[in-house]
Known about the structure:
The protein is of the alpha+beta class. Helix content is 54%, strand content 8%. The protein has 29 helices and 9 strands.
Amino acid sequence: WSLPNAERYALQYADGRQTYITESNRRDIKNGSILRLTTSPDQEAEQLYIGIQSKNVDVKTDSLKKLASLSQDITFAQEFISRNGLKQIYSIVEEGNDTGEMLAHTLKAFTELMEHDFVSWENLSTVFIKKIVSYVNMNAVDASIQQLSLSILENMVPTSRLLFEVVKKEVTLDRLLTHLQVTNAQLQLKAMALLIALLLSATDAERRDMMDYLREKNIRQFIHKNIIHSSEPLGDEMAHYLYVLQSVSLNLCEHRMKMSMDPYSQEQRDLLQSLRQTAFESESEAPAGTFSTERRRSLCAKEFRKLGFMNNSNPAEDLRRAPPGLLALDNMVYFSRNTPNAYSRFILENSSREDKHECPFARSSIQLTLILCEILHIGEPCSETAQAFYPMFFGQDHFFEELFCICIQLVNKTWKEMRATQEDFDKVMQVVREQITRTLSLKPTSLELFKTRVNALNYSEILKLRQTERLHQEETLAVPVLELREKLKPELLELIRQQRLLHLCEGTLFRKISSRRRQDKLWYCRLSPNHKVLHYGDVEEGVQSPPIESLTEKIPVADMKMLLVGKECPHTKEKSSGKQNKDVLELAFSIVHDVEEYCLNFIAPTRYEFCLWTDGLNVLLGKEMTSERTQTDLDVLLSMELKLRLLDLENVSIPDDPPPIPKPPSNLNFCYDFSHAEQ
């Protein structure tokens, strides 16, 4: 347009995030995008740099407000930081004269500028950090400022050990617990985020101390009553933090789980002997002098055999396997001390059964502890996205030990129901694992409810469930049926393809995850009804299904080159953390379009969405659908279709070979003449 001083102007998207157009992103402009002419980022940065130093309060506030909004753009952020703009932000915070709205805009702008990773968090001055900490520690501060301050500290903690130590020292756990007890849900969430960041960055010893302190302060009861059972529904982010808290807490058992029993440790031998004494105290009451050493040893061995140890002369050998290591011994001792009646009943009942039919307490306990560790993922790193916490975990002190007490009695009950012998040990434990996992999947809210449900799910119920599932999976395997199956496949695969494309047309909400933390930024992607264009764009929290017109970004299907999944995706390679989480890898996929360097990166919310999207994109690319979901859907559809087709053949055995075709008749004069009949 031949404007004078053209370098003072720039183009910017009119909708969405209003990003500036630069040489590096100009090729991403899609047909139909609305752009507007505006001041160039360097001019804007210069004006705001001067504006935030103004003596006029209104000018300063407006400049900071605009800065907070524009700092989301990487080009502007670069220009502002290159002018040493962060130094001005530091001084506004460090001087500490401004409060309220002005300070809130300053902290928001700081958070957005740091998000671009141009400046290291370690460059922050001690005065600045102390000031941010003071906003968290003061009572008479606006909630929005406290939220932003907590968020800044949460980002700071994982970046360096030094910053972690500063924050841990300055922001006490008591202070965080105070913030957790407010009614403002956002403030509560940010306080929980900082608490989790501190726990994840701590060493094992520090984490143990912090968890002990939180236990003393009854954080579990508070979460159970005021967060899980509050009137407000639980958000995804809070659910994730509760999952991490549960995971960190359960992982405190990992140390004992990985430690084998030391036969020379007096403390461990005493624990082992206490099991024997609690069970057989009346028999062992005879004075020490009555028996010779040999007789005493044989009596102990006999009692350890009754307790169900495989190696009754040296029971410590049974506990050498790690996992479950000493955790199994801890569980047995807890059961014997906290529920002595149930413990004695278990031992005495089984020692009076026939030799082959007794349920071995110690062997069962060791195996059950291992099963519980596997089910509860003890010793595994926390997932970055999972939200699967058990509400009953927060409803009970000593959750793991109490769960063991319920489940070891379940083992005895199931053993009797199965009329098991020693050879059936593995089968019994398999059924017990199924009883526990099926009950946990119902998400009982308390251990009492878990106990009721798991006991109701007896062996005959498990058999019924298995039978039903088997019937769903089973199909007749006669040759003609298999041939019919192959004939139906193409038609049903086409049906699955159509379903996948319809799902892509409906679209899905995806979450953005950065390398530093879980982001609460959302974006939506959907396929146009004519299957020609993929539309996508950022959306606000709570938007369920945005209209296709509001999604500003587009990729023509014709420009799509290939689909990458898992480790091949660029956004999983970029992640710097060595512990690349398995679940993120399982949900990641990317579309390569135009020239190869352009990728649209996804992290699916669930495995189900991942399967549907990768299948749909493969269909658009003219390739085979490869997800495990395709196979399950095909099996279900084939099973239904076959059952419908074979309804008339119920109770008829289908031969493997077709019946022989009869010989042709000697003459073909058997045509009926209708004309005679009509007369």
